[in-house]
Amino acid sequence: MVKLSKRQKAFAELGKEGSVFSLEEAVSKIDSFPKCKFDETVEVHLKLNIDPKSTDQTVRGKVVMPNGTGKKIKIAVFCKGENIQKAQALGADYVGAEDLIEKVTQGLMDFDSVIATPDMMRDLSKLGKVLGPRGLMPSPKAGTVTQDVEKVINEVRAGRVEFKVDKQADIHVGVGKRSFGKEKLLENIKHLLEAINHTKPSSVKGDLIKSMTLSTTMGPGLKVSL
Length: 226
What we know:
It is built from 8 helices and 10 strands. With 226 residues, the protein is α/β, with parallel strands linked by helices. The relative contact order is 0.27.
């Protein structure tokens, strides 16, 4: 007979309690999970009521989490002229123009967010096959193509996250760390849901969000009633 760990027993008991929780209940359950040796990320997984193949039903946007994300974000900024000094002064991890493009071409990928000024986009297009699959290609819709690099760097540092529906009509977003506690996690999640609902395409009938699951890095997914 297989002996279950403390975490496995707790998760097995959780399954007996029911399959669907309110948002508040789900966050409380996560707060009570047996702890890991590291601070787990809390993740929201959404299934949207859209046709991902329809070009007029793309859902994409950004939101600044009121309590941050708990993650240290490494930022790459592609820019020229005085914007280079601005980005460096704000502590961007990688800053440059053609020289930075060359470094990325040679394998540099040690960053989590990419910002670019409009005058860099033509040259940056050659990195589409590298940045695109990782969701890092700058975009005006996501607000990462901008002349105001200072504003966007500060937003990213403050806890700005981008969301984009995938080919399965799903969105997956980290909303904070377990150590945040219930109230901060709830506030972040509600901000995220509000931001996503504001991007609802006019062609979508009914609610935009079809289903929601909440999980931690090492924990089970909890179905949340909307």
